[in-house]
Design goal:
Largest sheet: 7 strands, mixed
Distance between the termini: 58 Å
Strand content: 5-15%
Length: 573
């Protein structure tokens, strides 16, 4: 019987991540739950066994329920009835299967009914679900919105809402509006305080809301009358049981058909403040978005895996000119690049998740007691790393998912353009990954300051120093990446020396790509040194791709003149 977890040992490999022991002991608060809950782990190895069992269960559900249902969900999709969104029938089956498997409340503490798993493991679960059905992953993974309520809400709110999500109720984050997409400072949904009822009332429209008719919503709204920027926005909790919100329209999309994207009308909807006023965009949305971006990175890796699986299976079976097409250099080159992007992207995903886990766990510990000076330093270090790496993980993995889905169709040839083959659905589903929760261009904007100011260069040099003793074959690959560092550093300095913001913005994507590729090369070399049977081929291919790309982009930057911006603008005009 197929199992999306055990069939891919590359995933389990990352449970042996260098930071995993620290991640687990912090998330478990040094295993304090072992005396309160009989199912809580007593030590690191016990926790790992718990993770493996749940991953195996999820891999089984993904392969044998979610994946077989995915075609039906894609064809049926959700529909609208009397102001309510109705899931596709097989989506209802999927949600029920995940509830029965106990796969809700993954990140939440056990005292609320959660599993208390770290982000690294949650990302693995998300990858498995996405490989089976990327649209359903959206519905299921939005349970992570509860992290923001846990961090910002009161204890009374936690006790009312978190157990409901752990029991399988759904969530959404209602941020964007018709005139406020990426520019959330323009949100105008109005929040007014009702003195008589001692509650807030929401009025207005939200658009492009994923899973928009969910049970529990986190809503960004303007609470400060007369304001027009982010400082007037607050975060609110809306409970569907209270009424006042209707679905006006469900978008008809290119892909992820099972994931309902709704336009919502708020009419005097009763809501409650989450956290403090005025911090909705400045603090709470950033928390939501960073979690969502990690979720899209996991979604992208899952779809990349499935695209590679489909392409590889077809290439092994399809014969042309008297031989299997996998024997053709053009085909096996394409497949090897797909696998290298998948393996390197997955390593970036779990590296980022580990950084997020350490700082988030220390923040949580800080709610109960004062951190030691060493712990405070550790929290700040990993928060900086998480902030720097999250846009890299989201941006590059979403681009790789699109590339792998595209290449899967190419390997299928004409059959790939036929609706009966899965690769066309993967291609349609992948296209949104580099758009929602911040386009790749916005990921570049989020990352570029860490590149320009030398933070990422310093991180790369630290990674190299930590790899001083990699084994012989991997050391030669490491030396090739090391030789690129002066090229990369010169490119950064060249861009900085232009002292022209338009030129920096124009060249930022090239610096971003170079940064990602160097970092992911080092990560895949590290993985290959530990498990050559899994990653050596990908490391060789990915390092070659990185050399090809970094040298080319560096040459472009070296020969770039700000004067050429006028020519580009004139051409476009």
């Amino acid at each position: 019987m197929a199992n999306y977890y055990s069939d891919h040992p590359e995933i389990a490999f990352h449970l042996d991540h260098p930071l995993m022991k620290r991640v687990v002991e912090l998330k478990e608060k040094f295993y304090e739950d072992k005396d309160k809950f009989d199912y809580a782990p007593v030590d690191f190895f016990d926790a790992l066994e718990n993770y493996k069992q749940v991953l195996d269960l999820t891999g089984d559900v993904a392969a044998n329920i979610l994946a077989p249902n995915s075609e039906s969900v894609d064809l049926e999709g959700p529909h609208l009835e009397n102001g309510r969104m109705i899931y596709a029938s097989k989506t209802v089956e999927n949600i029920d299967a995940m509830r029965k498997a106990g796969l809700f409340g993954v990140s939440m503490p056990r005292r609320y009914g959660g599993l208390n798993f770290p982000n690294l493991v949650f990302s693995m679960l998300s990858e498995l679900v996405s490989a089976a059905d990327a649209g359903f992953q959206n519905i299921w993974s939005l349970q992570s919105c509860i992290d923001t309520l846990y961090e910002a809400g009161s204890e009374e709110q936690r006790q009312r809402y978190i157990p409901r999500v752990c029991a399988g109720e759904t969530m959404s984050m209602d941020l964007t509006e018709p005139d406020a997409g990426s520019d959330l400072q323009r949100v105008m949904l109005k929040a007014t305080f009702d003195e008589k009822e001692n509650c807030w009332r929401l009025n207005g429209v939200k658009r492009f809301i994923t899973n928009g008719d969910s049970d529990i919503h986190l809503v960004l709204a303007r609470s400060e009358e007369g304001t027009k920027d982010g400082r007037g926005l607050s975060m609110f909790i809306y409970d569907k049981r209270q009424g006042g919100v209707n679905v006006r329209h469900i978008e008809h999309k290119l892909g992820i058909h099972g994931s309902p994207t709704c336009e919502l009308t708020y009419k005097n909807a009763k809501a409650e403040l989450c956290g403090s006023t005025r911090l909705g965009l400045i603090k709470y949305v950033m928390s939501l978005m960073n979690g969502a971006r990690l979720g899209i990175a996991a979604q992208s890796v899952g779809l990349s895996q499935e695209a590679y699986n489909e392409a590889l299976a077809y290439a092994r079976e399809r014969a042309q000119f008297g031989q299997k097409i996998i024997e053709f250099p053009a085909v096996f080159d394409m497949l090897s690049r797909m696998k290298a992007k998948l393996d390197a992207g997955r390593s970036m995903l779990y590296q980022t998740a580990a950084y997020v886990d350490i700082y988030k766990a220390l923040e949580d510990i800080q709610r109960d007691r004062k951190l030691t000076p060493e712990e405070r330093d550790e929290m700040k270090k990993y928060q900086r790393l998480a902030d720097a790496f999250t846009p890299l993980a989201k941006g590059m993995n979403s681009e790789y998912a699109n590339q792998n889905a595209y290449d899967a169709i190419s390997i299928h040839g004409g059959s790939g353009f036929i609706m009966e083959y899965k690769c066309q659905r993967l291609y349609r589903d992948a296209r949104i990954f580099s758009i929602y929760e911040g386009t790749t261009q916005l990921q570049v904007v989020a990352a570029i300051r860490y590149i320009i100011n030398g933070t990422m260069l310093q991180n790369i040099k630290e990674m190299l120093s930590e790899m001083a003793n990699v084994e012989c074959k991997m050391s030669s690959l490491k030396a090739r990446i090391e030789a690129l560092i002066p090229v990369y550093e010169e490119a950064i300095n060249t861009v900085k020396a232009l002292d022209n913001q338009d030129a920096i913005d124009f060249l930022s994507r090239r610096l971003y790509d170079m940064t990602c590729e160097i970092v992911m090369s080092l990560l895949i070399i590290r993985d290959a040194a530990k498990a050559p049977e899994l990653f050596e081929k990908s490391a060789v291919v990915y390092v070659g791709m990185t050399e090809e790309d970094v040298i080319g982009k560096a040459a472009y930057i070296k020969n770039f003149s700000p004067d050429s911006l006028c020519n580009f603008r004139a051409t476009e005009a």
